[in-house]
Amino acid sequence: MLEENKTPHHYEKFKSILHISSYETVNHEEGKILLFQDISEFEKMAEELETVKKLKLTIETTLENAYDGILMTDDKNMITMVSPPLLELFNLEKTEVLYKPVDQILPQLKLGNVFSSEMAEVSDFHEMNGIRYIVHRIPIMKDGKVIGAIGKVMFRQLNEVSELFKKLQKAENKASFYHQQLQKSESARFTWDHIFSKDPNMERLKKSAAKAAKGRSTVLVRGESGTGKELFAHAIHNSSARSDGKFVVVNCAAIPEDLLESEFFGYEEGAFTGAKQRGKIGKFDLANGGTLFLDEIGDMSLSLQAKLLRVLQEREFYRVGGNVRVKVDVRIIAATNRNLEEMVKQGEFREDLYYRLNVISLNIPPLRERVQDVEYLIIGLMKELNYMLGTSITGISSQTKEALLSYGWPGNVRELRNVLERAMTFAEHGKIQAEDLPDYLISQLSTPPTEQISLAEDAELGAIKKALNQTNGNKAKAARLLGISRSGLYEKIKKYELSV
């Protein structure tokens, strides 16, 4: 006998819920109303909802572990999902990006294009902090209408996965090589903007050098090896009235002494055995109307010093094997890392030439005396090296930064650049780690990198166990407690082979 029950009965066999209620018949008898409610549609909706949840989890996991940058937008072009590599590339936080208009936050992606074109497209090459990237814009279609967009930003090791990038890189490298060879002896490539510094003394030195550049006087740039003496010489020329003229470089230490004179002054036809039939013009001829940069001037022989002094005084010279005076208008910038005063005392450098060169003297301080510049230089050099090496390095770990800031840098900026180039070549995680540094830098760290990693992993494992214990194994609550995504927690559980 059926009894009235306000609680519905669930009949799994018939995919329905039975509702029983009483009523009074016209004969004043008690009747029953049986209402069967079909629940198959509700179960289907629940299954679809569960599928959507799984799909969302899959997408979130994919975004968390994506190799390149990915973001998704809705039909209003508002960002709904974003991957960590994309945030890292553009130096953004997740809270700055989610549910914001993509054209406002990342206009350079031009993701709105697909709403009008309704077609997938690939952008040209763009650059961010020296890192090259391309954007693959993909419309999300439903019933012939764009309901959202996917932006895939490809930048990690792009030269390995993109044939187009390889061809472009080869062509650019070849063109750059020939361009550099042409410029090396004929024009200055650097300006004051290429000399990275926030040190007050360096800023004063740059201002003094810029003032000196306006005149015609000889400038002597002094400093330890690797401090950037040649950069100063280039910048002085480029900010002078002779900037349209040629900038010719002679490394006095690199050219054999018996060839230095002919390199400086050129030679006439038949001047010596092996001479070219038409003779050769020298560096002074090439630099006429411009600047001649004499690097490592302290390594010049005494006999050549005497001839150089004559050119500086008389502004004329004779070619090797010639008897015709050649007049020139050349400004001299010299550089050395040697103690010229001591060399004068020892008779290794002409005193009269020293005073002729030392009209305006610029002393560049070593890097160890401007420690605050190290971090600033790292940022500028990383951007430059990313472009040159085709890497995608976005920063450095705290331990690496500690090592770089505490090191004395006897090789100055040149050594810092070489260390960064090596580290960026070996880095595999988007950021330079301590183990990417040379051994002599790693050895000065208080704790070796492998031990640091082990300690960090032990701490992380302990935190995960504690969170799971406090939440009785509830992964969603544990993830919230740890401040990470649930998919991120699953990855760590898998990493540490935890049985939960």
Task: Describe the fold and architecture.
With 500 residues, this protein is an alpha/beta fold. It is 44% helix and 19% strand. The protein contains 21 helices and 18 strands. It has helices at 40-64, 84-89, 94-97, 102-105, 113-117, 158-161, 163-184, 200-213, 229-238, 257-265, 283-286, 302-314, 340-345, 351-357, 372-389, 398-406, 412-426, 439-442, 449-470, 475-482, 486-495; strands at 5-11, 16-24, 30-38, 69-73, 79-82, 121-122, 126-128, 131-142, 145-154, 219-222, 247-251, 291-295, 316-318, 325-327, 331-336, 360-363, 395-396, 431-432. The strands form five sheets. Strands 4, 5, 6, 7, 8 and 9 form a six-stranded antiparallel beta sheet that branches. A hairpin with a 2-residue loop joins strand 8 and strand 9 (145-154). Helix 20 crosses helix 21. It is elongated. The model has no long low-confidence stretch (mean pLDDT 79).
What labels describe this entry?
single chain, 500 residues, alpha/beta, 6-stranded antiparallel β-sheet, 5-stranded parallel β-sheet, 21 helices, 18 strands, 19% strand, elongated
| Tally of contiguous helical segments | 21
What share of the residues lie within helices?
Answer: 40-55%
Low-confidence runs: none
Largest sheet composition = 6 strands, antiparallel
The structure class reads alpha/beta
Count the E strands. 18
Cα-to-Cα separation, first versus last residue: 48 Å
Radius of gyration from CA coordinates:
36 Å
On the 0 to 100 scale, the average pLDDT is 79
- Proportion in β-strands: 15-25%
Q: What gross morphology would you assign?
A: elongated
